[in-house]
Design goal:
mainly alpha, about 0% strand, 9 helices
Length: about 140
């Protein structure tokens, strides 16, 4: 994906986030509805395209940072059933969204990173092999 296309997709997602922020701040939507909308946003085609652009090593590096930041939360999520994780995902996305203030690029990155956690990515994006589309990893990565 070229840089212009990536910026266009990010712009689409950021516009949606800003609209949700304004609706939430004005009290027009509840926390529950906000959570459902955020799940739809991270599962949308533009978000999936941005995710597929990340290599497996970059995703793994981001996961490790999240795991190191909150090891207790990681253990708690890893012990939940899939049904319970499906209930928790909107709550986690709302925490990220509300905790970041006005939405910006870092908010979008955090939402996508949360959806990419191994606890959620299977039912948000499907199996990892479905998302690779035959891409090969580069030889130099964040972890190298």
């Amino acid at each position: 994906m070229d840089e212009d296309r990536k910026l266009e997709l990010e712009s689409i997602l950021l516009n949606r986030l800003e609209a949700m922020y304004r609706l939430y701040e004005s009290g027009a939507i509840s926390v529950r509805l906000l959570g459902r909308q955020l799940v739809q946003l991270v599962g949308s085609e533009p978000a999936q395209a941005i995710c597929s652009e990340m290599g497996a090593k970059e995703i793994e590096a981001r996961r490790l940072l999240i795991r190191m930041d909150d090891p207790d939360g990681w253990r708690q999520l890893s012990s939940m059933s899939e049904d319970k994780r499906r209930e928790v995902l909107p709550e986690k996305l709302v925490e990220v969204f509300i905790g970041s203030g006005e939405p910006d690029r870092s908010t979008l990155d955090s939402l996508i990173d949360t959806a990419n956690l191994p606890f959620f990515s299977g039912f948000v994006y499907g199996a990892r092999s479905d998302r690779d589309n035959g891409r090969r990893e580069s030889r130099v990565s964040v972890l190298d």
